[in-house]
UniProtKB/TrEMBL annotation:
Keywords: Aminotransferase, Pyridoxal phosphate, Transferase. The keyword Cell division does not apply. This is alanine--glyoxylate transaminase. Its EC number is 2.6.1.44. It comes from Musa acuminata subsp. malaccensis (Wild banana). It holds the Pfam family Aminotran_3. It comes from the Eukaryota. Signal peptide: none annotated. GO terms for molecular function: alanine-glyoxylate transaminase activity; identical protein binding; pyridoxal phosphate binding. Its cofactor is pyridoxal 5'-phosphate. It catalyses: glyoxylate + L-alanine = glycine + pyruvate.
Length: 243
């Protein structure tokens, strides 16, 4: 821990523990002390540590082909995207690009929303470019996604961030509807269950009402499920059975 202070920029406040290994849902420090893993790599590691199927798949792929970027076709990538479409249960969709993190996925969604508005309204000199997010939200730390994050201590050190973001009280549909209807909203970003801001859960009625309001206004509705998807609520995707 002391050595790290000399070589590493302190961007995170760490717990005073040095984790050396893990198995399943358990972590072990350098002294062999066992801890239950209650963070799962900040809510991204659903299979636990050392899952044999995952390990074997990684080894097999590493022996076969490591990385080719997006300049060439790749069979595993196409198989994955077909599988994602199948799991979501919507054959008419095309799978989005696979991202490395939640903040990258939200950055891509920001760009998709802006491009969608320009494509949908080619005759408009200024199509909808603004965004709506909610109080207690956390959508990432990169410059676009941090602009959608309501907590000021994430945003203030890096201002000016991306302009055109309005924060609405989480769960307040009437306020959200007024903001959506003004015609300048490219997309609404919402976590169906908020994690970083506290465990706040949106109601089914609120999510369905947002869906209708966005459809009526021609705005996209982006569900940020980074912390609540992949079976954590009993469904692979939380909003798929709801909206």
């Amino acid at each position: 821990m002391e050595l790290e202070k000399n070589v590493f920029v302190g961007t995170y406040a760490r717990a005073p523990v040095v984790i050396q290994s893990g198995k399943g849902c358990e972590l072990y420090d350098v002294d062999g002390k066992e801890y239950p893993d209650m963070t799962a790599g900040i809510a991204v590691y659903s299979l636990g540590h050392g899952d044999p199927d995952w390990v074997n798949a990684m080894i097999e792929q590493a022996h076969t082909l490591t990385h080719v970027g997006n300049l060439y076709y790749s069979i595993p990538q196409v198989r994955l995207e077909f599988y994602l479409i199948y799991l979501y249960g919507c054959d008419s969709w095309k799978a989005p690009p696979v991202a490395n993190s939640g903040t990258e996925a939200n950055e891509a969604a920001i760009k998709f929303a802006r491009k969608f508005q320009r494509f949908s309204h080619p005759d408009k000199k200024l199509p909808a470019t603004e965004f709506i997010a909610f109080t207690h939200s956390f959508h990432g730390r990169t410059m676009g996604s941090v602009a959608l994050t309501s907590k000021e201590h994430y945003r203030l050190p890096f201002e000016p961030v991306m302009p055109g973001v309005k924060f609405i009280e989480y769960g307040n549909f009437e306020e959200a509807k007024k903001a959506i209807q003004h015609g300048k909203t490219a997309a609404v970003f919402i976590e169906p269950i908020q994690g970083e801001g506290g465990i706040y859960s949106a109601t089914k009625d609120f999510l369905r009402a947002l869906r209708t309001a966005c459809d009526d206004a021609g705005a996209l509705l982006v569900f940020d499920e980074v912390q609540c998807r992949l079976g954590r609520t009993g469904h692979l995707w939380l909003v798929r059975p709801l909206v």
